[in-house]
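Recap slide: Putative cilia-and flagella-associated protein 69, sequence and predicted structure.
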Amino acid sequence: MLSYIHPNENTSQAQEWSPAQFEEIQLHVMAALCTLGPLCVQDYIDSQGSTRYTSPPGMMILLATVTPFMVSEKEKKSTDEVLLASHRSMVSLRDSSVNQDLTDQGAINQYLIFYRVRPDQICQMMPLMSRCNVICYTSSQYCVTESNIGNMKERLEDNQIRISLFFLFAMFVKLTYALWRKPELFGEKGVDSILRYLKTNPKKLFNGLGHHRMMLATLGAIWCCIVGATINEDQFLEGEGIFLLLDLLQNAARSMHNLILGCLTDLCENAKSVSHLSTWRGSSDQTVGKLLVRIWKEEEKELGVMRKEDGTIADTNKPLIGTLQDSEGVTPLPANSPSQSIVDISENMRAKLYALLYKLGFEELQGLSAEDQVTLCIIERYMDFKQGEVWSEITEELTQEGVRPVTPDQEALAVIGRASQELASLVIDMQEEILESETQHDLLEEQELYSQIRENHKQAENTLEKWQDYVARTSNYELLKSAKKLQDLSIHQSREEVDNSRESKENVALCSFGNLTRRLIRDQSGSVFDEFSIAYALLSLSVSKHRFDVSEIYWT
């Protein structure tokens, strides 16, 4: 059967099969190999099946655009689907020898060529490429005439082609996963292919046309082929891959959140990723912290975790336990079986959200409201609450099994239980403090707003009063005369105040002069008071230009 997987050679010799017949045989052969190949692995290897599939002639069949004997568009699609299915059936075996053989024959590079190339000519002439930007390697040669372009549109619109492309990428992921120690085989072309597909509008990925399956394979390729390979990670970050994943996380359906968060968590092992996460801004200027807290709230709502209306902890004994976990209770299990608390970590997204927020830093998050900060208090203590939950299960299992620990262990379990409850109470106090602070802040803002409103009203009233007074004075002569009298009276009173202040200064000067002369006389210590001192005092007083009473001088 493998001997038929090669192009039909047009020679001058007589041919046993016509091109159409030969193609039909190829389709049947490849369909049969989808079932026979996994059952005859050794025969597949001995017959060099990987070489036939991955050699240039074999890849021509896969590309389905340069083989001259394929004349039917329907047959082209069938060939792609069948050959991709036969590849996938072999890779799905997870047989190391088969996967290694495919890799050695260059299957990964051939898949990348098929997945990556997008000719500019086709992009300009086909708006449909915005929906599905994965085309064949030789489509630029095939789509020359307008009729051929129409046929390519029909192929891309067909859902089976999208399914085939999903199979192709799924195979690539499995091959790379089988060669975990060689993620570098993905290379620059593979990273570019993923970045190109991630740039597709996320809203169009979940419109029911099957694109979400391609996105699922893309996320698997990120986890298998980029995470852990430093070169691939750096190139992925340079291409703004973190931003694209966060955009996808914001717009994707909830069923995809766990996979995206897993990729982001693994990428955070690269120190450069944290700055990308902190820089990202989504719709309405949403930060990554606010996005992750929102997903945490949705996850707790889905799990049925008890919370008050303001988001605070409702039960200090069960700060993280959901409705399903609480209804199942604690069942004694063997020592090698994980308990409900441990299984809960892998069954929901809270552990991944905690890991991401821990990498970002709980104190460095921006754009959080008071309600988000209340939830963040719980997230920050997630590991402590989970430890207390595990110890509570241990205590409950011992009680159900009728085992009494020794006194020191029993006291230690009691202390651990009280510490967990006290921690929950402490978190509640912190949450209430945040809410109280937010309430006081809102009250202050409200008071400032009302003060501003009152000031605006007061200014409006003053303006109205001034306008009414102006209108009254200009329209009523008696009021104008009264205003004039008030103005004159005000001017007269202001002048009297100036005169009174001047007289008070002169009195102060006279008192100072009297004190000066008395001090001069005392300084003479009983000697005769000479005329020179009096003349000096009079001269000083005249220089000061103040009035004085001559009788005061004579008295002195």
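The longest helix spans residues 407-475.
The CA atoms of residues 332 and 397 lie 6 Å apart.
(End of recap.)
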